[in-house]
Amino acid sequence: MDTLNNLMEKTMDTVNDFIIKQNKYIPTFPKASGRPTIFIEGYPFEDDEPMGATQFHTEQITIFSDQLSRYFAINEHIHIGVDNFIYYHEGDTSRVVAPDIFVVFGVDKYPLRRSFYTWAEGAVPVTVIEFLSDSTANQDQHDKVGLYLSDIGVQEYFIHQPEMKKPSEFRGWQRSSAGNIIEIEPDAAGGLFSEALNLWLRWKDDQTTHVRLLRPYLPDGTPITTSREEAQLREEEKQLREEEQQLREDAEAKAAKETERRQEAEVLAKEANQRHAEEVKRNRELEAELEGLRGQLNESKD
User: Across the beta sheet with 96-97, what order do the strands follow?
Assistant: First the structure.
């Protein structure tokens, strides 16, 4: 019981602690000058080319975007785009990119957009992330660095190779205060810190899916869980509650049985005492009767 109670308290403390950290670490920013724009006529929101993403990329994009969406869900002015067109020059439909994941601060999270128009929203992404594929790796590693950071005005740009069978590559660039593009220095473990998102980005090989999984962490190293992990934690919490309830019911049943046994013992003891008292009384009566007979016998002899 005490062990389960301690686990439950630890679980609740962990949840509450994360909420406190979440409010502490999420960046602050001004509201954008534009307004949410779902669609502008004349700007295509899809192309005729079929999506050729591998399952490695799909797994990586799904998990990472899910983590960011869940983490930033408490702020209604953070928009996260996944493989959407970004038009960054009004009147020119050729000035368009479609990054795997991008984050925009200061704009409404909803409604969902078909494309993101920087001039209409009054904001550009603060962070862009591309996951390398054979067809786009060269552009992602070279051309897009200047495109995102200089032409569009993105603050940070990251690339990551999610396929474990290929050499690892995780790099990031940012614009300095002077406007220069500088590469972000990794820490000893190869992680990169996103100043815009105020999050550490680190990868770890997932032997089950064979994905070199990039994940976000709070500045103090606390991992941001996925929906699946959150569901698992809730299931474990539910099981702990059920086990705690079962132990409580078992303890109450044991206590009730012990009370019943004690009451039965008290009844038996009371009955035994009563029988003993009756026997003592009966013995005294017999002794008195015997003494009377002895007295009568002595009188008859005299």
Answer: 96-97, 85-87, 115-117
Residue 301 domain-assigned (yes or no):
no
255 in a structural domain: no
Q: How many CB atoms lie within 10 A of CB 177?
A: 5
Structural contact between residues 81 and 64, judged by C-beta atoms closer than 8 angstroms = no
**CATH code at 80?**
3.90.1570.20
pLDDT tens digits, one per residue of 183-198: 999 999 999 999 999 9
Q: Which residue has the tokens 């960054």?
A: 88
Domain with 125, as residue range(s), is 2-225
End-to-end Cα spacing for the chain: 83
Phi, psi of 172 (to 5 degrees): -150, 150
CA distance 153 to 147: 8
- Residue at 236 is within a domain: no
Please state whether the peptide bond connecting residue 111 to the residue before it is cis, i.e. omega within 30 degrees of 0. Answer: yes
Phi, psi of 131 (to 5 degrees): -105, 125
Helix (H, G, I), strand (E, B) or coil at 287: helix
Q: Work out the burial of residue 202: count CB atoms within 10 Å of its CB; fewer than 13 is exposed, 13-18 middle, 19 or more buried.
A: buried
Number of domains composing the chain: 1
Cα 264 from chain centroid (whole Å)? 52
Structure tokens at 240: 């702990």
- Residue 213 DSSP SS3: strand
Tokens of 157: 């740009």
Whole-angstrom CA distances from 128 to 67, 119, 292 are 15, 18, 116
pLDDT one-digit tens code per residue, 215-272: 999 999 999 988 777 776 667 666 667 677 777 877 887 888 888 888 888 888 888 8
Task: Answer yes or no: are the C-beta atoms of 115 and 43 closer than 8 Å.
Answer: yes
**Taking a C-beta distance cutoff of 8 angstroms, is the pair 44, 86 a contact?**
no
